[in-house]
């Protein structure tokens, strides 16, 4: 199982965050909740969306300007909601099965998953305030 490295928002320690875990990740040094931000592809997707917290699925592509614009906002929201939200980023060009599975017709497409099931969907980029309010309804 692969992992990504994130900095702890409380103490700055860099920690490996697994794609899948039985709980939510915490800092090895100060034990503060860590932002759970992972990349997934066709092979790792099903294990990546398993979480005890809501999953924000970001279906994006590197050539998409709105995707690049909203990405730092989503990462900030994942950091602000560490321990309460998992952000899973999927490059639809690299993962066509996921794009088809979710019927993606425009990107970015953002999906809130609760217990692996779609709870809400939004197409296009939004402001930080708008996205925070949308995500907040599911936390």
How is this structure best described in words?
This protein is α/β, with parallel strands linked by helices and 139 residues long. It has a single domain, classed as Glutaredoxin (3-Layer(aba) Sandwich). 25% of the residues lie in helices and 29% in strands. The protein has a five-stranded mixed β-sheet with strand order 3-5-4-6-7, with helices on one face. It has a two-stranded antiparallel sheet with strand order 1-2. Strand 4, helix 2 (65-80) and strand 5 (86-91) form a beta-alpha-beta unit. The radius of gyration is 14 Å and the shape is globular. The model has no long low-confidence stretch (mean pLDDT 93).
Q: What's the count of strands?
A: 7
Q: Write the H/E string, N to C.
A: EEEHEHEHEEH
Overall structural domain count: 1
Strand percentage lies at 25-35%
CATH superfamily: Glutaredoxin
CATH C-level class is Alpha Beta
Number of helices: 4
Share in helix:
25-40%
Assign the CATH topology: Glutaredoxin
* Shape verdict: globular
Secondary-structure-derived class = alpha/beta
How do the strands of the widest beta sheet line up side by side? 3-5-4-6-7
CATH architecture, please? Answer: 3-Layer(aba) Sandwich
Sheet with most strands: 5 strands, mixed
Gyration radius, in Å: 14 Å
Could you report the average pLDDT, rounded to the nearest whole number? 93
Q: Unreliable runs, pLDDT <50, ≥5 residues? A: none
Cα end-to-end separation: 27 Å
Summarize it:
With 139 residues, this protein is of the alpha/beta class. The protein contains four helices and seven strands.
């Amino acid at each position: 199982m692969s992992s990504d490295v994130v900095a702890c928002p409380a103490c700055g320690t860099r920690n490996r965050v697994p794609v899948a875990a039985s709980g939510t990740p915490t800092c090895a040094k100060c034990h503060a909740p860590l932002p759970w931000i992972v990349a997934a592809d066709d092979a790792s997707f099903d294990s990546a969306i398993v979480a005890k917290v809501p999953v924000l699925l970001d279906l994006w592509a590197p050539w998409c300007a709105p995707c690049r614009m909203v990405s730092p906002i989503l990462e900030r929201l994942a950091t602000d909601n560490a321990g309460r939200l998992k952000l899973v980023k999927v490059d639809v060009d690299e993962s066509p099965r996921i794009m088809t599975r979710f019927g993606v017709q425009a990107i970015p497409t953002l999906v809130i998953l609760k217990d692996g099931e779609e709870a809400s969907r939004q197409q296009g980029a939004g402001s930080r305030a708008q996205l925070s309010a949308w995500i907040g309804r599911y936390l």
